[in-house]
């Protein structure tokens, strides 16, 4: 059985490694940021969002059941809210609530 000291030591090491990895770019690139890093910083957010959209719609069957209508409505609401308010938390929360209400009460 693992004792408390061992568990605390593991947590401390994980916290230290996480902190060092998160601080490393700021320490390494404190004076000037290389052009490839700047390019990736501009391009990767759009690529990640595209991957998340593909991941979210990967198992939607547009040929049976509700034909993916609740998913498309929730995604459209999320995109519209984010475009309008530029608030990530609000758009994700509203899209999730909309989707849950649709699949629980409308598309039963």
Describe the structure.
By secondary structure, this protein is an all-alpha fold. It has a domain at 33-106. It contains 4 helices and no strands. Helix 3 runs antiparallel to helix 4.
On the 0-100 scale, what is the average pLDDT?
92
Radius of gyration: 21 Å
Largest sheet: none
Order of helices and strands: HHHH
Helix percentage? over 70%
List the SSEs and their pairings.
Layout: H1 4-28, H2 35-57, H3 69-85, H4 88-106
Helix pairs in contact: 3-4
Structure keywords:
108 residues; mainly alpha; 4 helices; 78% helix
Structure described in brief:
With 108 residues, this protein is mainly alpha-helical. The protein has four helices and no strands.
